[in-house]
Amino acid sequence: MEDEESRVEGLSAERGILRYCVTGATGYIGSWLVKSLLQRGYTVHTTVRDPAKTMNLLPLWGGGDRLRVFRADLREEGSFDEAVKGCSGVFHVAASMEFDVPAKEDSDSYARENFIDPAIDGTLNLLKSCSKTASVKRVVFTSSISTLTAKDRDGQWRSIVDESCQTPIDHVWKTKAGAWVYVLSKLLTEETAFKFANENGIDLVSVITTTVTGPFLTPTVPSSVRVLLSPITGDPKFSSILSAVNSRMGSIALVHIEDICSAHIFLMEHARAEGRYICSSHNYLMSELVDRLDKEYRSSNKPSCRLVEEDHGSAPSEISSKKLKDLGFNFKYGVDDIIHQTVKSCVDCGFLSPIVN
Ligand SMILES: NC(=O)c1ccc[n+]([C@@H]2O[C@H](COP(=O)([O-])OP(=O)(O)OC[C@H]3O[C@@H](n4cnc5c(N)ncnc54)[C@H](OP(=O)(O)O)[C@@H]3O)[C@@H](O)[C@H]2O)c1
């Protein structure tokens, strides 16, 4: 027992010397990642646009003098210089979460000027700060499942979706299907980030993140949790995002917040990590997901879940985390935990009405 305690203490002391920077620390994933790193004993530099937004996060993070908060904005060149100094790795989690643009005649140029170009420039700003800092050995970029599609060139469902199944950029511009601005921002930002990293000797690894749910530290319910719960809440904005994911993937892939943060840390530290990694615990057909949510929340006597749309009626494509698992990553949470903890957290914070048995 004593041996185990001194081993853990020794590990924490070693990690305390290791310093990581996390961008977007006021967001859902960023705030949980900061907590996970501090709990594991690392020293953390977090960046936030508005330090006042950390007031209720600071007591939840803990970490004492192993935590430093920096003000930084992706839209300001050089903004991340101080925050990344002395860090051995940077988790680039921050991103604007705009999903659509107002209907306009010139929607392409509007989207480019207001959302896509700023997203690309913001990530380049961060990478430029990293390339000026010799201590930074790796950058882990939070990518999205929206960069992938389960449909092949002929519009047929693939049996397996892996990291190569990229959504064609020209198809997104042409079809402007739901959440198209977000899809393009993530696709083009990631593409530019890898190009810049290759040209400037930065070791960049990306985590293709599926819909993240479970508990949360943020004072408001995160967007991805609202998306998952939209069959219960009927919120049209988030239902339409769920529908957009479903039409591109033929199913909804989920991952627990703790697993996505562990995957980020695992990929930061694994010597052989390279390129892109899908991180998905499980994917549900839309009808299965609605059914599962209904079972979890049925005792509330609230209206049943609404089926957002028909699914394609067969077994869904497998959204494969094989590359990540082959490297040695293990998921801790199954789908039952994910759905149960998400509903419970939302009942506890008052977002969903209490369950009446
Ligand atoms: N959650 C998911 O299911 C999911 C799935 C796939 C991919 N992702 C990716 O994961 C990342 C985080 O997502 P999330 O769910 O945690 O979103 P979130 O809760 O909305 O957090 C976004 C974070 O980015 C920050 N941010 C936005 N614009 C910024 C700017 N110009 N400069 C600096 N920081 C800025 C926000 O800061 P403020 O608080 O100041 O606004 C916030 O901290 C994003 O890259 C997203 O694309 C998430």
From TrEMBL:
Gene Ontology molecular-function annotations: dihydroflavanol 4-reductase activity; flavanone 4-reductase activity
Superkingdom in the source lineage: Eukaryota
Annotated InterPro entries: Epimerase_deHydtase, NAD(P)-bd_dom_sf, NAD(P)_dehydrat-like
Pathway annotation from the record: Pigment biosynthesis; anthocyanin biosynthesis
Top enzyme category: oxidoreductase
Residue ranges occupied by any NAD-dependent epimerase/dehydratase domain in the UniProt entry: 21-273
UniProt keywords, alphabetically: Flavonoid biosynthesis, NADP, Oxidoreductase
Record EC number: 1.1.1.219, 1.1.1.234
GO biological process annotation, one example: flavonoid biosynthetic process
NADP in keyword set: yes
Pfam families assigned: Epimerase
Swiss-Prot/TrEMBL catalytic activity: a (2R,3S,4S)-leucoanthocyanidin + NADP(+) = a (2R,3R)-dihydroflavonol + NADPH + H(+); (2S)-flavan-4-ol + NADP(+) = (2S)-flavanone + NADPH + H(+)
Gene3D superfamilies: NAD(P)-binding Rossmann-like Domain (3.40.50.720)
Protein role: Bifunctional enzyme involved in flavonoid metabolism.
Family: Belongs to the NAD(P)-dependent epimerase/dehydratase family. Dihydroflavonol-4-reductase subfamily.
Protein name (record): Dihydroflavonol 4-reductase
